[in-house]
Amino acid sequence: MIEILDRSDVDKARVTGALVGEILQTLRRRSTVGTNLLDIDRWTAEMIVAAGAESCYVDYAPSFGRGPFGHYICTGVNDAVLHGRPTDQVLADGDLLSLDLAISKDGIAADAAISFIVGDAGPAESVALIDATERALAAGIAVAAPGARIGDISHAIGTVLGDAGYSINTEFGGHGIGSTMHQDPHISNTGRPGRGYTLRPGLMLALEPWVMTDTARLITDSDGWTLRSATGCRTAHSEHTIAITDDGAEILTLPR
Ligand code: MF3
Ligand code: CO
Fold it and tell me: How far from chain centre, in Å, is Cα 98?
């Protein structure tokens, strides 16, 4: 089902979105050399509760995972790219960390992800990966407006990732979002312009380009959740929730 939000729900989405952006920014600042992923998970839970919001993850048990996720944030270190379940792992200088957070407040969800290098050293390869996902996300947002099609967004994202030299995995991509985190339409990270659902005001979408350095193949960790690059190469992921407005798109998941 595709949900079209009314004005009051979009107002609520602005509140949830800003919270997601602020929590991610705080976590980014606190994620330094020596930080344990389980601390990041605990800080997230504390901030969600303090804000009067709810986790979209903790009880989430979709077919692509094993049982409920059981944590409050996805933490992907280096080769872990999607659905990274926090473990008792300590961050090292130069690690590429992806944080993906979805929460709900007043019945409206928002979802965003950031990738960054821990500490100050980081291979140029990591900088390029992160840069490609951020530019692809910006390109997808730039074409999102009433009358545009889902395929236009997919094409814009895929062009940036492809031009940067990455092969694109189509098993996981962006999605509609609203009263629940994962809704139709699916937004592949590559596609043909002019195809698919036509965007209209009140539609909320989570766009999420992600890439792996030298493969498009994923493997599932023994935890039944964490998806890693099949070759062990580094990966990155960037995501925002946007609302289609009368004249374009508004990014909801920026800190206020
Ligand atoms: N927020 C993720 C996405 O971007 C989904 C994570 S589901 C979880 O769509 F259960 F792993 F947390
Ligand atoms: Co998402």
Answer: 9
pLDDT reported for residue 216: 98
Domain ranges of the chain: 7-251
* CATH top-level class of 7-251: alpha beta
pLDDT band for position 174 (50/70/90)?
A: very high
pTM value?
0.98
Atom of ligand 1 nearest to the CA of 69: 10
Cβ(69) to ligand 1 under 6 A? yes
Minimum CA distance residue for ligand 1 atom 6: 83
Q: Which residues contact 1 (CB under 8 A, 6 or more apart)?
A: 183, 184
Ligand 1 atom closest to residue 239's alpha carbon, by position in its atom list: 4
Q: Does residue 83 line the site of ligand 1, with CB under 6 A?
A: yes
Burial class (CB in 10 A: 0-12, 13-18, 19+), 131: middle
Backbone angles phi, psi at 50, to 5 degrees: -60, -30
